[in-house]
Each structure stands twice: as C-alpha cells, then as structure tokens.
Write a structure and sequence with these properties.
Layout lengths: L1 E5 L3 H12 L1 H8 L4 E6 L10 E3 L2 H5 L6 E4 L5 H12 L3 E4 L2 H12 L4 E3 L10 H8 L5 E7 L2 H13 L3 H10 L8 H4 L2 H15 L9 E2 L7 H9 L2 E12 L2 E12 L11 E8 L3 E8 L3 H17 L16 E2 L6 E10 L5 H11 L4 E7 L7 E7 L2 E2 H12 L9 E5 L2
Parallel strand pairs: 1-2, 1-4, 2-3, 4-5, 5-6, 8-10, 10-13, 10-18
Antiparallel strand pairs: 7-9, 7-11, 9-10, 11-12, 14-16, 14-17, 14-18, 15-16
Helix pairs in contact: 1-12, 4-5, 5-10, 7-8
Length: about 425
C-alpha cells in the first residue's frame, strides 16, 4: 500500500520513520507492507527519508497512491484538498482537529474513506474507543485534559506556586509552549478536540464559536493557594455532559477534587475520562502531542485501511440521536469566585446579599491573610447554580466601589 504524506514536519517525518523502521512488524499485523513514497513540504528537506516535493499537484497526478495522509494543519486549504480526495473516492488519514471541528459533517457523505484517530489526544486511541469499545453505552459524560501545553503550565503553577506569566516563559524555554501560545492557552485547541468527541458520542453538530470556551491566562498563585486549601486541583478541561437529551459543551479551567483519576494527570500528558451507563468510568491516558505519539495513531489508521476493515458508511458524526446543544446560560454547576475587596466592615454582607439576589448560595468561604497588601482577597465556592445567574452576579460585582480588581470565576466539577 503506497502512502503520500501531505505535510512533512515533525509528525510527517515520524510517520515515515515508523513505517520504514517497523515495516516488518506492521506487515505481520496487517498483512501488507505500507510504503511512504512521497511527501509534500513548503521547503526542501535534505535529510528526508522519502522524496519531498513542494507542489501538491505533483502528488495528486500520480496514479500509484493508495492513501493520502493530511498533516498540513490549517482549515480551509486542508478541507478543500481532503474534500477533493474523498469526493474522488480516495482514502485519507488526517490529524487535523481544526478542520474537523468546522467541516466534519461536510466530509461525512462523500464516497471516500476518512480516518482521524490522531485528531484528538495524539496517540491515545480515544476515537476508536468511542466508536467501537464503548458503542453499546449511552455516554453520560466526557471530561478531558486535551492540551498538553496548558496542562504543563497548570501543573507547574500548582507545584511551585509561580504566576502564569513566569510559568509560560519556562514552558516556552523547554519547548512545551509555542512562541505564540494563544491557541493552546485560550482553550481553542481543546475546544476543537471536544467537538470531535461530542459529535461521536452525541451526534452534536456545533462549531467552536457556539460553545463556552475560556483559557487559563487569568489564573494566578492565589487560585492555586485556594485549591490546595480545599483539596482541589486546577485543570483545563473539555467537558461534555448529557442532561436528558441536551448536551452541555464547555472548555475552561476547572477546580476538581485532587483524589479523582484525571486530577493526577500532570505535565504535558493528556487524559480523557468517559462515563458510560454500562461500563461506568474509564480513563484513557497518554502523550497527547509530539511527532511519535501522533504518528502512532496515524499508522494505526493506515493499518486499518490495509486490513480492509474500515468499511464504515459514515465517519460516525451523523447519527440519528435526539441530543441538542444546551445553551451556555443553562449550564448548571458549582462555581468558585476570587474577589479583591476593600477591607472594611459590611463588605462581606453586601457580597452575600448580591449573591442572594442572583439566586446563588455560598458553599464555602475563605479569606487570605493580608501581608503588606492594602486590600483583602476573598474566596467563595457556591452551590450549584445556572451560568446566567453567575454572569448576573459578576456584572453586579463589577459595579461595586468596594471591588478593587476584576472578579475572577472558575467552574467546579465534582
């Protein structure tokens, strides 16, 4: 089986290396040798293991390609190319979560075959788990650490008590964060991956901008202080939860009890916790990025094609399921608030009165001792309430003279 690699960066070169170095093992397991024969790259690759060209038409005009592996990234050009290939009945493997986040349904009905295990959580076989291993389950929830950069930053902040900016700089020096890390720390990367998982679990047709998405840049050492005091850990989670036949989809930093399985996943690792009605909770853990980890998933899809076992009529996104996307304001969960306030009598009662007016009740309260600070820092957790109620409270708090910095809120999952 001849393979063309549309992209020859860290992942593309790792795919070529794996197919060449492990060719005997791969052939023994799928019954056919899989040969990478040509690759597409913007610039010359003098040490490339295979032929590299810069014009995609040189690859498209060949008649000896059995499978195309799209590893270019981006959205529009990648979509146009994959659409063309699938429309012509070709087989394609992609690791492009951004493209699938926007165009997965448009690719569903084409005559070709598309595999996409590497699009979520790198080498963790989470797509296969949802489509096959958990196929008999009604999926109650999905909670995932889907971005290694954010997880590394939050883990390091928790361990050392450093602020966000200092930790980000260290992550960049170590190569765990890009020079421009906005896609990772804003939650966008995790949102793209969550949409793919939610489509498979619930048949939800949504775009990234339609779901709640918040990043980690406003978290500071005070939040880590509170988390430790109350036995929480802070993680950037992608969350999908079914409520009757509505599904809430959200990506945001989250306080979770430190003794839960997913709370123990640190550094650049990824993990996805899935709760099914039959199996209960299962956790899928591993490297979520990097050339070799992603290549592992890409080659696994190629081997499926080689075994001729990939005959699904659909990718799994279009399903006759009755689920609809829950509106953001109807999300119902617990909340954490960090407030910097004027240190004087009556402030606490004013805050609790505002909470009551917004239909929110206090679950716990902590005041951090002042050390050379003019203002007090107050921490609250609430009982479960609606997103629209917490938004109303935040707006009201910002209008108060005794509030000395913008209120900070995080959601809690227990």
């Amino acid at each position: 089986m001849n393979v063309a690699l549309l992209g020859y960066g860290s992942v593309g070169s790792a795919v070529a290396e794996a197919l060449i170095e492990n060719k005997e093992i791969i052939k023994a397991r799928c019954g056919e040798e899989i040969k990478p024969i040509i690759a597409l790259a913007r610039s010359p690759k003098p040490n490339a293991l295979i032929s590299v060209v810069s014009d995609v038409n040189e690859i498209l005009k060949r008649e000896d390609i059995d499978v195309y592996v799209e590893l270019m990234g981006g959205v529009e050009f990648a979509y146009e190319l994959v659409y063309k290939l699938l429309k012509e009945g070709k087989k394609v493997v992609t690791a492009n979560k951004a493209m699938l986040a926007y165009y997965r349904y448009e690719l569903e009905s084409l005559v070709g075959k598309l595999a996409f295990e590497a699009s979520v959580a790198g080498g963790i076989p989470i797509i296969k788990a949802l489509k096959e291993g958990l196929a008999a389950n009604k999926i109650i929830s999905i909670k995932g650490i889907l971005n290694g950069t954010s997880n590394y930053i939050l883990s390091a902040m928790s361990e050392r008590g450093d602020d966000f900016e200092d930790t980000l700089k260290k992550a960049q020096k170590l190569g765990y964060a890009e020079a421009n890390p906005s896609f990772d720390i804003s939650g966008e990367d995790a949102a793209h991956k969550l949409l793919i998982l939610a489509s498979l679990a619930y048949g939800i047709r949504a775009k990234p901008e339609e779901i709640l998405c918040e990043g980690i840049s406003d978290i500071n050492a005070l939040d880590m202080y509170f988390a430790k005091e109350f036995d929480y850990t802070i993680k950037l989670l992608g969350i999908a939860k079914a409520q009757d036949f509505s599904v809430e989809l959200r990506v945001h930093p989250t306080l979770i009890p430190k003794d839960t399985m997913i709370a123990k996943v640190n550094g650049v690792m990824n993990a996805v916790s899935i709760v099914g009605d039959l199996l209960g909770e299962s956790l899928y853990y591993g490297a979520g990025a990097g050339g070799k980890a992603t290549a592992s998933a890409v080659v696994a899809n190629l081997m499926e094609f080689a075994r001729e076992n990939y005959f699904e009529p659909m990718l799994g996104f279009k399903q006759n399921l009755p689920f609809t996307l829950l509106k953001k304001e109807e999300i119902f969960t617990k909340y954490y608030l960090r407030l910097k306030v004027e240190d004087k009598i009556g402030v606490l009662s004013k805050i609790t009165n505002l909470m009551s007016e917004c239909g929110i009740s206090v679950d716990s309260f902590l005041q951090k001792p002042k050390i050379n600070e003019p203002h007090s820092t107050l921490f609250f957790t609430t009982h479960k309430s609606y997103e629209k109620s917490i938004r109303k409270l935040l707006k009201a708090l910002k209008e108060q003279e005794f509030i000395k910095a913008s209120p900070f809120m995080m959601r809690i999952e227990e």
